[in-house]
Amino acid sequence: MSNAKLQVPDARPVRADKRPPGQVDDRSPEDPRGDDRATARRVPMSRRRFVQQLRVEKRRSDRSRAPLSLVAIRLPRGLRGVPDAVDAVLELIERSRRETDCVGFLGEAALGVLLPYTDAAGRQAFVARIATPTGGLGCTTVSGTYPDQLFESLAAECEVSREALDYLLEEDHRHSPSKFALKRCLDVIGALLLLVAFAPVMVAAALAVKATSPGPAIFRQVRLGRRGTPFVFYKFRSMRIDADDGVHRDYVAALIRGCHELVNQGDAHRPLYKLRGDPRVTAVGRFLRRTSIDELPQLFNVLKGDMSLVGPRPPIPYEAEKYQPWHLRRVLEARPGLTGLWQVEGRSRVSFDEMVRLDLRYARNWSLPMDLAILARTVGAVLRLDGEP
User: Fold this and answer.
1) CATH node for 47-169
2) Is the whole model's pTM more than 0.90, yes or no?
């Protein structure tokens, strides 16, 4: 048995012929097989090329809402450097895939098969065809479907293991680890300073909530963090303890669908996309919301690492259920924040789609100076009482 290290080939350019999307031409002028397509086998894409194709297919799925599946086949440790074992798996994949399916490396130990326009049932059928033969080699198979399985996991109020979906959720590494470390330092230091500075205000708010309505001072709710990870979100309670969320569910569903005339609580010149005069809100709660004091307990979420000082607002699971696939990127691409670009540029004056675009612009372009600028502008918004009317 050879111990030669597996050499991962790079994908050769696609030729300008009528090939289905994702098909890679493995022939070259020096290829002795020439035009004998019956014996030709496509060279697997390199990991870099495969991930690029994955992102293209994800964007196509976002636009069309067509399902996209991924199957990852992991070689056992003893066969990871054995070319014959890799060739055996590739031969099996070649017999089972369609012309539009893409095959590539996910690393030295794994091969990936990208299955466009394939739902969970189709994915399972493909896995069934290859499971027994690859199992004989000791390979393991994990798979996922985007966006179907992703929506299900976001709707569930618990952490879901989705190994293959980790690849489907993978985004460009636009920011270095040092930038994330600096952002985390800003979060921790900023949250501690703000907690010390606003401790008397928070104590007074808690006492006011307890004195004016029965129930706890702190409201706890499951929200979705980065990559859809659920966490417990804290706010000062601003509603009656027996408040029904049906009104909010209906309003949010209409807002996400884009029913602007139905959900606009302002007028044509100054729209307001937020529930106004909500009867569930107490008198003290209305003051807390208008001054944004109700948000201060989220500083503990920042210290725990569930949130950042700056980022998109974390959605409630029933909101994410209504999202279009491209909306989900606001959850997947950045850690949620106490404030963000939407709060200082759009607030409740812009539609839901515009809010998502602001969140995605932040996720693409954030930097430490940008975070500091948003925090400074947030202070101005709070002083102007730009909170809920």
Assistant:
1) 3.30.70.270
2) no
